[in-house]
UniProtKB/TrEMBL annotation:
Gene3D superfamilies: Spore Coat Polysaccharide Biosynthesis Protein SpsA, Chain A (3.90.550.10). It comes from Phormidesmis priestleyi Ana. This is Glycosyltransferase. Pfam families: DUF2064. InterPro entries: Nucleotide-diphossugar_trans, Trfase_1_rSAM/seldom-assoc.
Length: 257
């Protein structure tokens, strides 16, 4: 059993404005198609992580279920306004959840998690700022991720939060050489800030250089299972296969109901 103070789960995403998101996929999908993929992947992830939406905190956690209930999800966005994000997510996420609900008690759509605008700057600056603000305001452990890795799950996030009881940093290696998830336990900016300095973002050196920076800062690190991001045209078959499998599961579920 460990003392479970407030845990933060920060999802970085972008308002799906054509031409401004998933730009590496525009040659394959077009600007509108790339923006639609951004929309689909964000909604897919937020639905999978809905267990982290409730704002419940209570003393100690000894089970994965308690850890989930004490982890607060925030959506850190760029490329839009709070109003645009609110309208999009209410129509795309909460409406579909409500339509699938069979319980009268769940007919009221769940509220969208807090929406927080990212600061200006490159990805490293934005990550560093969000983590610093999270530690200063309320969180003892923070897991941050983008919306590019559709295989991320509730158990994986819970595992990352729990590992932060023993390690300073937890990383989820992406197969392209980056990382799909980073977890940090509370520490001064002077200790973790170098994790985001001199990193060539969107290259295959991101993970290795981050590990070197952690070692230089004297930070202990543990790694999660490697997973694939959907960033480039060659990654698209993985997304299509996931969508096909998801559709098959829905059909099978309907037959069994």
């Amino acid at each position: 059993m460990f003392k479970c103070d407030r845990n933060g789960l920060l999802v970085f995403t972008r308002f799906p404005q054509p031409g401004q998101t998933k730009t590496r996929l525009i040659p394959a999908l077009g600007a509108d198609g790339a923006a639609d993929l951004q929309r689909q992947m964000t909604v897919h992830l937020l639905k999978k992580l809905m267990m982290f939406w409730p704002q419940r905190f209570s003393g100690e956690a000894s089970t994965p279920e308690q850890t989930r209930s004490q982890t607060r999800l925030q959506i850190h966005f760029s490329g839009g306004t709070v109003e645009q994000m609110q309208t999009w997510l209410e129509s795309s996420v909460t409406s579909s959840v409500t339509s699938r609900s069979c319980s009268v008690a769940q007919l009221e759509p769940p509220p969208i998690p807090p929406l927080i605008a990212q600061c200006e700057g490159d990805l490293g600056m934005r990550l560093r700022f969000a983590l610093q603000q999270g530690f200063e305001n309320e969180f003892e452990r923070i897991v941050v991720m983008g919306s590019d890795c559709p295989a991320v799950s509730e158990p994986l996030v819970t595992q990352a939060v729990n590992l932060l009881a023993h390690y300073d940093v937890v990383l989820g290696p992406a197969l392209d050489g980056g990382y799909y998830l980073m977890g940090l336990r509370k520490m001064a900016l002077s200790r973790f800030g170098t994790l985001f300095e001199n990193i060539p973002w969107s290259t295959d050196n991101v993970l290795s250089l981050t590990l070197k920076a952690a070692a230089s800062a004297g930070l202990s690190v543990d790694l999660l299972q490697p997973l694939s991001d959907i960033d480039r045209p060659e990654d698209l078959p993985m997304w299509y296969a996931l969508q096909k499998n998801s559709m098959c599961c829905k059909i099978t579920s309907g037959w069994l109901d």
